[in-house]
Each structure stands twice: as C-alpha cells, then as structure tokens.
C-alpha cells in the first residue's frame, strides 16, 4: 500500500467558508436591530448609575445592597411612575437621592426600550 500513493484517501476541509458566513450574518442582524449610538448611550447611562450608586451608598462595590435598576422597566412607566419606582429601589439609601433620581430621569429621556434577545 505504501508503494501506491494514488490509492490512499485524501481529506479535504471545506467547512471553513460555511462557518464564517453565519457568524457574519448574525453580526449584521445585531447592528441592524440595535443602533450603535443607542447601545453606547445605554452603556454610558449604566456606567453613570454604577458610579452614582457608589457615591450614594458611600461604600465599595461588594458592600452595595443588591439593587437592580432596569432601564427598560423604567421606560415602560409614566414619568411619575419612574420616580416612584426609583424611590422604592433606593429606600435603603440614607443619603439624599433626589439628585440621582433627577439625573437618571433626565438621561433616559428619549431612550428607546430594547427588545429581548433574538429567537432562532
């Protein structure tokens, strides 16, 4: 068998092109579904929230009470509902929180609600 190289089987890999194409398609859907500026604005707001919570609770990240401020949930509420919800979430905070609430409500004005993840 070693003397007849033409009878040995060959292995060909063609999957390389097929695997890259779906990943490219997913990226295309993501950029169409979510505007890059909206994503950046939302990220900036979340970072601002994180920094403000450190100041409000005056402690390290590990010591901040379990607190989740859901921007999409707030966007579904009226202006007064947003303010009430934030006051409920921040009831454990002993520092004045009106500046934080006003700042957050100002920042989320005009922000659009994001839909859930894409389903296949």
TrEMBL record:
Record-level GO cellular component terms: cytoplasm
InterPro entries reported for this sequence: CPI-17, CPI-17_sf
GO molecular function list: protein serine/threonine phosphatase inhibitor activity
Coiled coil: none
Compositionally skewed regions (Polar residues) per UniProt: 1-11
GO biological process, one term: innate immune response
Record has NAD as a keyword: no
SUPFAM superfamilies: Myosin phosphatase inhibitor 17kDa protein, CPI-17 (SSF81790)
PANTHER family: PROTEIN PHOSPHATASE 1 INHIBITOR POTENTIATED BY PROTEIN KINASE C, PROTEIN PHOSPHATASE 1 REGULATORY SUBUNIT 14B
Similarity remark: Belongs to the PP1 inhibitor family.
UniProt protein name: Protein phosphatase 1 regulatory subunit 14B
């Amino acid at each position: 068998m070693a003397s007849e190289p033409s009878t040995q089987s060959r292995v060909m890999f063609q999957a390389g092109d097929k695997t890259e194409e779906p990943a490219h398609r997913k990226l295309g859907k993501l950029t169409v579904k979510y505007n890059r500026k909206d994503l950046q604005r939302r990220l900036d707001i979340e970072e601002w929230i994180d920094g403000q919570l450190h100041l409000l609770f005056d402690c390290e990240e590990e010591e901040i009470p379990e607190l989740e401020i859901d921007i999409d949930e707030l966007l579904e509420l009226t202006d007064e509902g947003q303010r009430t919800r934030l006051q409920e979430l921040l009831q454990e905070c002993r520092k004045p929180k009106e500046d934080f609430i006003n700042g957050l409500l100002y920042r989320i004005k005009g922000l659009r609600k994001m839909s859930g993840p894409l389903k296949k």
